[in-house]
Amino acid sequence: MEFLPEIRSYWRCRWAMMVVAVSLLGSIARANDPDWGAKMVNVTAVKYGSVAKGAETVVQIVVKNIYKEDIQITNLTTGCGCVSWEDVTKSPLPIVIPSAQSRVLTLRLDTVRYDGERNSKATIFLLDPVHASSAVVELPVTAYIRRDIVVSPGALNFGLLDQGAGAERKVDIHYAGRNDWKITSAKVANPNLLVNLKELPRLNDGQVKYELVVSLRPDAPIGTVRDHVIMTTDDANNPQVSVLVEAKIEPDIAITELQFGSVAPGQSKVVNVVIRGRKPFKIDELYREKKTDAKLQDDAFKVKLSSAVSTVHSLPVTFTAPNIPGVFEEDFFVKISDRPQPIPFKARVRIPEQTGAAKQ
């Protein structure tokens, strides 16, 4: 027994040496791979293409940490004032990216103060502090800001919208040049957006005007909409011009999840689901998603509806536990009057396995 302290000390030393060796190997691996930083970035160059004067133009760049250690973005720079990182003003540096996580960076093109052909660069500085290894990722930036096309306002920005509201925004497009200049089409990839392009009367003074109207469908799902309307012109050299579309759709009705906790087989438990809205509303139906492989029967949950019109509804839901042990997560939906899409929420419950005494 008198040798135990020496044995413990030996293995502590061995473990410390292994940790140091692994760290050194990681450092050597970073040093021998000059592209370790570039492997984290989803693009090798930023190409804005042809954009109109005054158009709000941004590109999002994803930086994903593919390594085991936390990686830091220590600095973000650009080669000229025509492009700028929004993240420098919105987030303090360094920006820490945990392992397997991503960070979205936004690079903005200044189409108000600048025009013509722009060639610059955007640089991302990375640091692996564990292995004291740094990397510099340079992204070439190219753009052509057209002087003859002006978009006002610079983007189709819907701002913050309630789910189900829908909305419409428009921009004016002014062209100075050929009297016969035309926009031949305007398209957007997002199915939740509808595009309508209208040409205004021409005055034969070299000024051509269009009105671009974009509608956001009322059934657009909750989340962020970010896309571009691509307009194709009859210009041979620069046929396409894009206009940014942005919207954020938030639920105007919030639902608390049902947490039943532990319910023993054969026992019942009542939990209220609370549904809050910004305006008074009526609930038509509260139902559970039908699943062919569901282990819990349909009558395991029973809800008492209310016909009231209110901004807050508290509905009692009764769960009766069958003799099926396990942890269950069920999908429920609330159907609101005059709303096409039901609102989902979840119910969670744990049914413990019966003991011998309980089984008897």
Helical run tally:
3
| Average pLDDT figure | 87
Structural class: mainly beta
The CATH architecture name of the largest domain reads: Sandwich
In whole angstroms, the N-to-C terminal distance is 51 Å
**Biggest β-sheet, characterized?**
8 strands, mixed
Tell me the total number of β-strands: 22
Order of helices and strands: HEEEEHEEEEEEEEEEEEEEEEEEH
Rg over C-alpha atoms, rounded to the nearest angstrom: 30 Å
Total individual domains: 3
- CATH-defined fold name of the largest domain: Immunoglobulin-like
CATH class of the largest domain: Mainly Beta
Uncertain stretches:
19-28
How much of the sequence lies in strands comes to over 45%
Helix amount, in percent? 10-25%
Q: How does the overall form come out from the CA principal axes?
A: flat
The CATH superfamily of the largest domain is Immunoglobulins
Secondary structure elements and pairings:
Blueprint: H1 4-32, E1 46-53, E2 57-64, E3 71-78, E4 83-85, H2 87-90, E5 95-97, E6 102-109, E7 116-128, E8 133-152, E9 156-162, E10 167-176, E11 183-187, E12 193-199, E13 207-216, E14 223-233, E15 240-250, E16 253-255, E17 258-262, E18 268-288, E19 301-303, E20 309-320, E21 326-336, E22 343-351, H3 356-359
Parallel strand pairs: 1-8, 9-15, 17-22
Antiparallel strand pairs: 2-6, 3-5, 3-7, 4-6, 7-8, 8-10, 10-13, 11-14, 12-13, 14-15, 16-18, 18-20, 18-21, 19-20, 21-22
